Request: fold
Amino acid sequence: MQSCTLTIGQARRFLLTKHGLVGQHTFTGKDGVLAYVRQAGCIQFDPVDICGRNAELVLQSRVRGFTKQMLTDLLYVDRRLIDYFDKNLAILPVEDWPYFERTRQHNRQHGRARDEIDAVADQIKAIVRARGAVCPNDLGIDGTLIWYWGGRTKLARAALETLYFRGDLVVHHKKGALKHYALAEDCFPVEVLHAPDPNVSESAWARWHVARRIGSVGLLWNRPSMAWLGSPATHSPTRQAAFAELVAEGSLIVVDVDGLKERLYCVADDRALLERVLQDAPVDPRTELLAPLDNLLWDRRLIEALFGFAYKWEVYTPPEQRKYGHYVLPILSGERFIGRAELVNARKTRTLWVKHVWLEDGVERTEAVEQALADCWERFARFNECTALRREDEHPVA
Reply:
């Protein structure tokens, strides 16, 4: 199968089945976390924690029995996953480390305040080698400089981050939002750290990224998209060439969707799933809350085209310009998005606060919808280790 045609409904079912968001759970427990991250390539990290951080929210919707400690253990105890840059700051399988050698090499050759950081780099690595994992306050290095995140920051922090960008250091563990860094060689196998870059050319690297992002979302089109962030595919000529080469070699399947003008693509590894979806086998519905930066939502224009659901994460939108709320999660029920909800984990009282629920036009609060939402809130409360539930959504805005 080099190409196929799907209905809108089949395209939706393909995406939701691939992501493990309908039917019986595809992913379970810690092994399920690892399996999903390997399938996705990466999950995006964001430090904002209103009712769980983004990566945790991605996993709780897909992995049966997921707890936040599972992800922490895989990152900082088992070291099967690693924090690094893929689609912006992300979490990815440690075995993918060799594929990002070009990123690390770029950071060795470029970067802000290189002279100031190079002047203390060897000193910092010697301290880490002697002491183990450190945070900026452990280094005893004075001085500040202008940094990427705006304004001035401590030289110690900037230097640790730069050595992390370059691959000399990795995140050993976190205490809250504070990162502690260790030598990469002390955390991961030498055969992983020193494996050659599998992509022998820039064009191979671009093809790898394009296929990786398509596989992560499930279906993508060849057009500018937030799904390409952090990859060479953000550059249109590079992306066009990569698509053409991947299609020619049979690594991508061309997917036409009834009603969509532009063609979509999926990876050839998903051929069996495509064939299953074409048989129109029914799937059991689930009701799940999705993360703001969920892999499924990486191309929001595509989601609007396929599901009729327009979503904007308003956390960085000025309050007076928000349509919904500060931290609002999409609600997926079965094969459609039925609304969005603003939830807060009130940690002091261990209470999940359901502040607002907005249902989409045409979605009625039937008894079945009410029960599905109630069950969803209960699961989400357990995920956040809340022992109480506070609801203020009895009269949502439709």
